């Protein structure tokens, strides 16, 4: 294993100076997972927001929760399959510096204000692009450690509290726009079975500083309708639950949560976050709509100033620029953040190949199929622009010089 190279996190003030440029996220592709969690190249799992009936019991139906088993490692497979479809339609290779899931870039963005976080990512450079995925084993280990901690007296189980978030989505979403939905279907949402199999994933092109980025991530719903024009702004909605702000402790926790809420929505270009406030027994009592772009400004106006959005953007921009220079060769690399560490570490773990980060289908597409498509396209273009051959006039007389 190579010696780790370190990117300094501290002092955080170094990232509070110049403002890094940000490219507005634009959707370039999408896909769905259906109710069997099978990949579909369509928007069939896109949902529409419609406010829930309050109060709502978020614990209802927990015993019949249809929960996806995510212990298997899916790597970047769904995202890469959608990129194959995108490149096939465009008949061109997507030129970008990074390809990753939104969750990875969220973790990187919030590093300056997440001292206790610990995570690992895998990365590989292929055809000029760095592909980054979560280290799956580290994720499972962290989850097991969290679940093995002694529960707080009177607190609900981790499984039940995770369920509350999915239940909130179920009572707030529709499969079709509300104008095409029967009232009985809207009112039946509280009794509907909760499942997290189906997902709509949006893939956007964005950028921080000089780094071009393609990110994929699940989107909860659209607030109205999705415009048909490519690259148009979409009124996505992110749904979140949190405890009622009954004391100073809950206020502080909520402000820290807002950092992640904001970063997740900011990265995919989600303009609105709807927060459902619940009590300790899981009853949903009220909703609050937040404009994503206004959250950092509100945080700076509070006396606590728990975090600063521009610092997060500047940090991510600087780290990604450094990462492009550090991951400069083939092989598999690891990106690591340790709890309370003052640095992010990057080191090579495999000298060649791409590990399992890139799917066989994507490798075949990029190394075999796409080159043939581009070659055929080039040949066709050359045939279309060949100059016409001039035919001599048979009636013309050749005069001697």
UniProtKB/TrEMBL annotation:
It catalyses: a 5'-end (N(7)-methyl 5'-triphosphoguanosine)-ribonucleoside-ribonucleotide in mRNA + H2O = a (N(7)-methyl 5'-triphosphoguanosine)-nucleoside + a 5'-end phospho-ribonucleoside in mRNA + H(+); a 5'-end triphospho-ribonucleoside in mRNA + H2O = a 5'-end phospho-ribonucleoside in mRNA + diphosphate + H(+); a 5'-end NAD(+)-phospho-ribonucleoside in mRNA + H2O = a 5'-end phospho-ribonucleoside in mRNA + NAD(+) + H(+). Its cofactor is a divalent metal cation. One of its GO terms (biological process) is NAD-cap decapping. Residues 23-362 form the RAI1-like domain. Its EC number is 3.6.1.-. InterPro entries: RAI1, RAI1-like_fam. It comes from the Eukaryota. One of its GO terms (cellular component) is nucleus. One of its GO terms (molecular function) is nucleotide binding. The keyword Mitochondrion does not apply. Belongs to the DXO/Dom3Z family. Decapping enzyme for NAD-capped RNAs: specifically hydrolyzes the nicotinamide adenine dinucleotide (NAD) cap from a subset of RNAs by removing the entire NAD moiety from the 5'-end of an NAD-capped RNA. The NAD-cap is present at the 5'-end of some RNAs and snoRNAs. In contrast to the canonical 5'-end N7 methylguanosine (m7G) cap, the NAD cap promotes mRNA decay. Also acts as a non-canonical decapping enzyme that removes the entire cap structure of m7G capped or incompletely capped RNAs. This is Decapping nuclease. It comes from Knufia fluminis. The gene is RAI1.
